Amino acid sequence: MADAxxxxxxxxxxxxxxxxxDGLDLEVGPHEALGIVGxxxxxxxxxxxxxxxxxxxxAGRVVLDGRDVTRTSVHQRTRAGLxxxxxxxxxxxxxxxxxxxxxxATEGAxxxxxxxxxxxxxALKRCGLAHLANTRGDALSLLQRKRLEVARxxxxxxxxxxxxxxxxxxxxxxxxxLVELVRAxxxxxxxxxxxxxxxxxxxxxxxxxxxxxxxxxxxxGDPEQVLRDPVVREIYLGQDPSEEGAA
Amino acid sequence: MSAGVPAVxxxxxxxxxxxxVGAVLLLVLxxxxxxxxEDVTSSxxxxxxxxxxxxxxxxLAGFGGLVSVGQQAFIxxxxxxxxxxxxxxxxxxxxxxxxxxxxxxxxxxxxxxAFRLRGDYFAVGTWVIAEVYRLVLVKIDSLGGPxxxxxxxxxxxxxxxxxxxxxxxxxxxxxxxxxxxxxxxxGRIGLALTAVRDDEVAARASGVDVTRAKRVxxxxxxxxxxxAGGVLVVDALSVQPNAIFSVQWSASMIFIVVIGxxxxxxGPIVGAIVYFLLQQVxxxxxxWYLVLLGCVAILVATRLPRGLWGTVHxxxxxxxxxxxYRVTRAPAAEPCPAVxx
Lengths: 247, 341
Ligand SMILES: Nc1ncnc2c1ncn2[C@@H]1O[C@H](COP(=O)(O)OP(=O)(O)OP(=O)(O)O)[C@@H](O)[C@H]1O
Ligand SMILES: [Mg+2]
Fold this sequence. Notes:
The complex is a heterodimer of chains A (247) and B (341). Chain A contains nine helices and ten strands. Chain A is an alpha/beta fold and 247 residues long. In chain A, the strands form two sheets. A six-stranded mixed β-sheet of chain A has the order 6-7-8-3-9-10, with helices on both faces. In chain A, helix 3 crosses helix 4 (113-126) and helix 3 (97-108) runs parallel beside helix 5 (142-155). The two termini of chain A are 34 Å apart. Chain B has helices at residues 15-35, 38-63, 72-87, 92-114, 119-137, 159-186, 188-198, 200-205, 210-236, 241-244, 248-260, 266-281, 287-303, 307-316; strands spanning 7-9, 149-150, 238-239, 326-329. In chain B, the strands form two sheets. A two-stranded antiparallel ribbon of chain B has the order 1-4. A two-stranded antiparallel ribbon of chain B has the order 2-3. The interface between A and B is large, with 56 and 38 residues. Magnesium ion binds at residues 44-45, 87, 164 of chain A.
């Protein structure tokens, strides 16, 4: 794939003895929706941290839209079109949800004036938070915080959206809502990379699935096929990953 | 872009009455030299200085998370700038403006050094930097060396007029300092600063250039402290290096901001008034003064962890300087897509 939007080349990272990435290669096309599964501690969140710039890899490159951003700061990657959520939500406690998305709209997307206001409001609305526009981050429930993570990422007008376990802890109708949202965002032309233990949510959304284990991709391709892969099944301790419900 | 633009209000519930009260208060303060004895206005000079330096520390620590104990570096630089410029014939009242500029100019290279340090190291580092500034300045013989200097260029001003001018100068610097903080936090950078205050990692991920935001705060804070140092020397007519570079200034700033409420523009003002009143009431109490100050600090820290103003804000939602964005009406139109096409 010559014109990959996001390309990770030979990423390696160790925390002492713990290997979280071991020469990892990954390409995401401009209109792709990729799901990533893997056991706890496999290094999935670390992969996002290296992609987003919070974590410097020991070796390898991160290429965004043909540009090497390995040494580029987090905010510049965001401005270049990389939007991400954090697995453990990071709301701004003293800022309202609207101020939060407005911040991402101005700083991340570079929008100004009315454009920024509508972008901020739209992101909240899409994530079902419009009625909480004037509520501070520290007054939100966990579910609302997770939604705010997505809203903030959307408000920065990403070209690639990195979602880290946003479906965990959601009820079935809520998962369905979230799937609907991610599908809509993807349909708008945004590339999506979604880390998730709730496999059926991924299956409803992605057109490609990868499995991360031991700092490597042990499988990558058609979702159904990946889930049938003996190595993947082995990692899920013999259980059928497609039947793993809300974690 | 067919945008649905929400109606957004920037003013709080209390804005109208408080701005009227504020304007009246300001008028009274401006007219004060005509209304009261000189000892009242001259003691208020120290209150205004406290408001300035505490507001600056609040900007730095309350929003930037930069817990500095070295802002006295810029108080000292400001004071010495006024002294040195007065020698060159610049009127001291004008010198105070230059003190702010000089402090900010020196803060720029200093920030590159200080920002290499994090957390506790930053605190200690800023203190060390302040000491270095003091050591360098006492090496300059023309500025009086270790014993300090008196300020020239003020002898031809009548003492009563001088007291009034100094009062207005201090009031002006305080008003400009608070207004600058308000203006900064209300503007686009204000959102970024508030985000940095709440979560640096998330602020970065939202596109905020966190280092730049912190540098802006550091420079503004230095400018304010520089002006405060200028006011101090104009008020005292002399400067003494150990006093002007004393870490006691940082202790006062921290005390005031913690008492008043960190991260609120009103906090340093409320805290400074409390601190000032304690100083006035306990002026003769000797070391009991410090004991009581400690008790007040412990009491507030344990009972009102968000400070006096933080408690008021939480309980009544009161805000003298509204910087929030309140969505008052959602757009009726269909929203625009949240993506680039
Ligand atoms: N900053 C860090 N310092 C040391 N070890 C870390 C650090 N961050 C992550 N790790 C370790 O690296 C491994 C991978 O962590 P990571 O969070 O990437 O896993 P994950 O695949 O996202 O897991 P989960 O499904 O539980 O979210 C874990 O063993 C974790 O303990
Ligand atoms: Mg994780």
